[in-house]
Amino acid sequence: MQLTIRLFPPYRKMNESGEFSLDLKQHSLNLEQLAYYLDQKYKDRFDYPLIDERRVLTAEFMVNGAHQPLSFSLSDQDEVSIIPYLCGG
Q1: Which of 6, 80, 81, 87 is the most exposed, having the fewest neighbouring CB atoms within 10 Å of its CB?
Q2: Vertex 1, ends 6 and 44: CA angle to 5°?
Q3: Can you give the pLDDT of all 89 residues of the chain as single tens digits?
Q4: pTM to 2 decimals?
């Protein structure tokens, strides 16, 4: 399965595009599994942790431009955008 991953600040590193291709051997993967895979294998690409010290995700996901739950099953050629949760007041 081939995916395009797009990282939005603060995840992408300064002066990097924040977009990369990911070629996975798995044929079935949901967003939650992808998040933990990225955290284990691609941690060096992130400027901010995707999963915090409590093992809680720090982002939400869009697939092909639409917000999706973590249980969403990915398909070949999907574009996954990783967007930080916003907070403040």
Answers
A1: 87
A2: 45
A3: 999 999 888 887 777 778 899 999 877 899 999 999 998 888 888 878 888 888 888 899 999 999 999 999 999 999 999 988 875 55
A4: 0.85
**Residue at 89 is within a domain:** no
Residue among 22, 81, 13 nearest 48 (CA): 13
* CA dihedral of residues 43, 86, 89, 52 (deg, nearest 10): -30
How many structural domains is the chain composed of?
1
> What residues pair up with 83 in beta bridges, in sequence order?
60
Q: What's 66's domain CATH number?
A: 3.10.20.30
